[in-house]
Amino acid sequence: MATVTFNEATRVYPGSDRPAVDKFNLEIGDGEFMVLVGPSGCGKSTTLRMLAGLEEVNAGSIFIGDRDVTQLPPKDRDIAMVFQNYALYPHMSVADNMGFALKMAGVPKAERDARVQEAAKLLGLEEFLARKPKALSGGQRQRVAMGRAIVRKPQVFLMDEPLSNLDAKLRVSTRTQIAALQARLGVTTVYVTHDQVEAMTMGDRIAVMKDGILQQVDSPLKLYDEPVNVFVAGFIGSPAMNLMPAKIVEGGAQIGDYTVPISRDVLAKAEGDEVIIGIRPENFKIDTTGISVDVAVVEELGADGYLYGTISGTDADAITAQQIVAHISARVAPQRGTTVRLNAVDPNTVHVFDEKSGLRIS
Amino acid sequence: MPHFLSARPDSRFIPLPWTIPLAQWPESYLVALPRGISRHVVRFIQVGNSVYAAKEVIEHLALHEYEMLVDLHRLDAPAVEPVAVVTDRIDENGKPLDPVLITRHLEFSLPYRTLFDYGVRPETVGRLIDAMVVLFVRLHLIGFLWGDVSLSNVLFRRDAGAFAAYLVDAETSEIHDALSDGQREADLDIAHVNLFGEFSDLEAGGMLDSSLSPQELADSIINRYRDLWNELTGVEQFAGSEIVRIENRVRRLNALGFDVAELDITTSPDGSQVQIQPKVVDAGYHQRKLLRLTGLDTEENQARRLLNDMGTFKVRTGQQHVDDAVVASQWLTQCYKPVLDAVPPELRGKRDGAQVYHEVLDYRWYQSQRECREVPLIEAAQGYIRDVLTTLPEEKVSLDRTLTNPYDPSHGFAGDEEDGPPPHDPWEDDAEEQPEPSGYLDIAALRAKHSK
Q: Range of B131's domain?
């Protein structure tokens, strides 16, 4: 097991004028589950591939433990790409299916058997070891594929969108199993996904990327509660945070006919005369004062629901209309077509970003 | 209503039973043909007189693979031809079904497992590996990162005394402008592990000759890959007086079946040193030459053999100074056509035309040796048909054991059942209870988990 360190790691594709990954710095702790997340084209897969040795590093360096692996071929890096190979060999027992790569690597039989046994125990496959893989279910096949990586005892596990090739049912169970296994094995893991819900539920820490640049690295809750900029604020959380441009006025920032109270110290950090106010759907409450919103749809989900609407005074049909989502109790659900006032449940849940730089100032 | 994505739409696909999961399609639509083991449902379907392979797979993989195969086809790489992707399938209860990727069945092709089921001589295994290496190198030359390199993802076609390999599964692949050394090494590493696994499996099934070791076979693919890659792309340096080495290099590449489209030649300022490196090499040197002269579309080694025969014909008929195209047309009508015409229609499904001609030439050579006379071609053809072709197995499923489902070899052989039902697996019970992903982030649950 080992730490992983990216040092100003940069990848520029030939013919491109912009780096796919730009001066990426990240320290991944020993045994940590690090998730790289971001929209398509953000550089997360390229980053993982640089670590795997599949992409050339044009500048900077990558360390696994205290070993500089920047120039090493993939097989000398002591990493394992999980779910690289799903094929199960019909004539070989489940045990041989899990341990054959060790045999190729010249690991003695006693050691091989012990490692396979250990992995099988972790994966609940002990009873199946002597059987042929024909009788295995889809989920069990997945676990054999995981077992192949586990028995190799690599320093680092790499997973590139491992759930994307599974059907919905397997996706959920495999997600839970990967997280549980990683916690038990304590192997440093780098996991790439475009799905922020997956990232938030699995990672110890999450690195959010956009346009090849690392935006923020933090624990899931820190990312959620204190996003460093507008991009992270909007990307993390589902439904997404409401991000509303507001004009700085005496006592706060004005949205429609309402002034959101914000301290003078915070507003002083803004470059121009506008800020962006961020409030998560669950941090809204229906109140007597607050931002005036025309209700478009109310989606009831049992005891609670979501209210969708637009800020009053903006043309609701225009595509530029400011959309608002609020999590509300079904008991107080308003009718569509009515107007309500939404206020933050707690002033601490109001995020303020500079309109010019997009950076957090609250 | 299913949606068809296809570059060459074919209306005959529309009435197929798209509302039924592929695994349950009535046998009237299916053909039992040998195929590899896949983790997806794969069936061969008959539409008119053509046979297609249909694979049921989740949407983004189906579209990705279709796109990759279209690119490979455009780049003239040896891969199966993509025909269509059928999406938006809904069963009779309104439940969505996975899309189906349709590719054209490669005629006369065999998956490696079928070859091994017939029994494979040790030297044939070497030829299979050679074919696999040529495919592997060709794909890497065009920037194709394979991902899941394995024998299971290849189809083999007889090619004179050798084999030609075709890619059949592009699910995990990517196309780049050029591959980095790291990408090639990663593919090689995967190939090494997968081939070791596949040969170990054949060994465990008693299908690998005892003189062969999975380890040595897996190692050999890596070594042969490196040799071929170096020959095709390596830099060669020599004294300016040895300029003939440029031509030698080109000849060596031609002999390997590659054409040099661009050669990078650098000379030192005083002309004492020359450095050469092939920049662009195209496979199929003999194949293209034969196609140009005769219109025959064959595999590379078959083309080489046919061209050699044409060369002999040219000398024998004293036409050394006549244009190749003229000789080719005479050879076609006087040699090639008569041999193929001699094959009765019912035997034509056993070998393709160029392969028959190649085997007739072999037969004639042995027969001439035995009888100490030059056996005429047409007499050799009749002898070959009588002694060889009639005894060959149809290269279709004709195994001694019966498959549980002839349309799906992954079900295994009848009588191969495991003992008793599978043991109880508590992990599977858990899986049943898992909720479907809602797409919403349950932040309250996350806070609760982290406060623990």
A: 110-233
